[in-house]
Amino acid sequence: MVKLSKRLQNAEKKHDLTRTYSIQDAIAILKDVAPLKFDQTMELSLSLGIDTKKADQQVRGTVNLPHGTGKTARVVVFASGDKAADATRAGADFVGSDDLAEKIMEGWVDFDAVVATPDMMRVLGKLGKVLGPRGLMPSPKAGTVTQDVGRAVKEIKAGKIEVKADKFGNVNTVFGKLSFGEKELQENYEALLASILKLRPSSHKGTYVKGIHVSSTMGVGVSIENQYASIAT
Q: What is the share, in percent, of the chain residues with pLDDT greater than 70?
């Protein structure tokens, strides 16, 4: 039998973690059982009933969190000339081309998002093995391959995040910080759910959202009442 940590033991004494909760109650529980003295990240995990082996059942898109993530994203932009200047004015942390690609190839990944103009995809091609596994490869669908790099940078800095299902059909993303108010966290959560529901592939049949869990960085996982489980086609 796996021995539970003291934190989890205390949480289980105070709350029945085997049941499901409303998002309001789940947020309250996570705040109640988070004794660590640092501002933990709030995380959302969704299990989707998609077949990721099918090209037409990929789930990927973006959402603007009403209250941001609680963290200012570090943004890398691949652009040149006027577009590079636009990115810098918009607040990009790093702007470059081949020189930036070489730095990343050498192991530097101290950033949270990557934006590129379409002509720079020739440079990004060789970074697929580095950026891909980290979910950082820019794409037109996510709005990170664009001529309007300035706008893309501003949106990401303001709290725009990308959501993407992994090969198992799971979406794992953040929706704020533990220090956020309960209303702010709930509104971020609802914005995420609404966005992911809109991304449902038209070819999908059956139950789309199979399970919903929320947790904090070092906290417990809480299962959320899944009102979408009965919605199937």
A: 91
> What is the number of other CB atoms lying within 10 angstroms of the CB of residue 36?
12
CA distance 210 to 214: 14
Structure tokens at 52: 């990721």
The chain-wide mean pLDDT, for the chain, equals: 89
Q: How far is CA 170 from CA 34, 54, 79, 106, 167, in A?
A: 25, 15, 32, 30, 7
The DSSP annotation for 82-120 comes to HHHHHHHHHT-SEEESHHHHHHHHTT----SEEEE-GGG
Cβ contact 208:50 at 8 Å: yes
Burial 119-147, CB ≥16 within 10 A → b, else e: ebeebbeebeebbeeeebbbeeebbbbbe
Let me know if 35 is exposed, middle or buried by CB neighbors in 10 A (0-12, 13-18, 19+).
exposed
